[in-house]
Amino acid sequence: MLLCRIFGHRFRFEDEGETMRWHCQRGCGAGGAKRYASARDAGRYARAFDKEDRDDLGKRAPLVGLLPLRLLRALRESSRRRS
Prior knowledge:
By secondary structure, the chain is of the alpha+beta class. 40% of the residues lie in helices and 20% in strands. It has helices at residues 2-7, 39-49, 67-82, and strands spanning 11-16, 19-24, 31-35. The termini are far apart.
């Protein structure tokens, strides 16, 4: 798929017992699986990996490069606290 070649895969992770599985959300067919010692470990890793970078945009931003984004985020949070 062209999007995956240009922007990279958009992997989604899930656990099935002791196995963690992943697949590309765009449907290109890329994916795989890994078996862990326990179902708890598989679930923990699947939850940790199944996050998109957009979810944390502005939290882990470089100090200078994304300063406007940090300021916008701070303004939004302060206005939510006042409401």
